[in-house]
Amino acid sequence: MSAALGLTExxxxxxxxxxxxxxxxxxxxxxxxxxxxxxxxxGRIRMALQTxxxxxxxxxxFINPTHQFSRQGLDNPDAVYFHAYLREGVExxxxxQRGTSADLSFQVMGGSYSADSTATSLMAFDDRELTIAADxxxxxxxxxxxxxxxxxxxEVFNDWDTEERGTLTIERTDTIGHPRRALTExxxxxxxxxxxxSLTGSIxxxxxFPHFFQYKEPVNTLTVPSRTPGGLSSQFSSIGHYExxxxxxxxxxVPRCDDCTYQAIQIGSDWYASTDYETHQTSLTKAQAHxxxxxxxxxxxxxxxxxxxxxxxxPAANWLETTGHxxxxxxxxxxxxxxxxxxxxxPSVEVVPVDQVAKRLPGLVGLSPEQYARRIAARxxxxxxxxxx
Length: 389
Known about the structure:
Elements lengths: L8 H15 L7 H23 L25 E7 L5 E7 L5 E8 L9 E7 L10 E7 L4 E9 L10 E6 L12 H24 L12 E2 L3 E2 L8 E8 L4 E8 L6 E6 L15 E3 L10 E7 L16 E3 L5 E9 L12 E6 L3 H4 L8 H18 L3
Parallel strand pairs: 14-15
Antiparallel strand pairs: 1-6, 2-5, 2-7, 3-4, 3-6, 8-10, 9-10, 10-16, 11-14, 11-17, 12-13, 12-16
């Protein structure tokens, strides 16, 4: 038997370091928090390997590193994310067929997020700037400018039931048609080293990131809508974080916006990741949410569902489940806007006892257990159709 090359040693050490970071996270309060952290760690390991082994500077392709099994950066439950690495000065051709999603946006980043800095957005636009043929196909050429490191594509869905994904490819004009370079020990060693750095770096980054934004704000408040940090084209967001007792609820009221194709709210965990959006209702788009007659959507964030005025317990149509989390981030997004938003477009927040919600919201729409189960089943089926793994 030949001697082991020791190529995986950096990754083994990084996994051990990452486990220590997870196990000693300052926000762990319960055993459920700790177990969620280990589940989060599995996604970070998965992403680190994908980042190191799937990305290819010579034969680039779009990969999907963030999904329901690999959550990071308060990932949007309504989005499919694609990343491709770039090399400065190289010409790329991006081709695709536009699906029917609410938004399709492109962004070129210089560098990457870290625990003490944010990445630089070099270019951002959505598909309104593309020439799209009658059959939905499009193509554009991009020469990577100085500092360009990554192209990120976000395909965002407002109506999970009816909107369909498109297709997307990227290629280098100077390497297309050529074989991939042969594997060598040096190449594999570098890939494992990249995976190791990516693993611990991503955990440290997302531990720190919310403190740049969400956690600078007072608890149980949301900001006036503003352009999302990072330069994403035509997106505004409102951010905050909640802290609720088991018998408390946060009521978030926000006008429905008809000047964008996508509007949504989500809550997350202290791991700065989405919570289970497949089998729980932890996010809602304007297509999924109930809107009152005055044009305002009123969301209830709580651990247990608010009772109706007659006292009967029932999940509310606009209930966002905290799924055992006493604290976590909150984010509202508006995308593909045709105008800038103002404070009047933004949310207001009120924290009340959960058994007083119906008195504060007399128009609260309740769902029967059967109706809520059908709603969750629809979410599961939509995620299965849309997401990659």
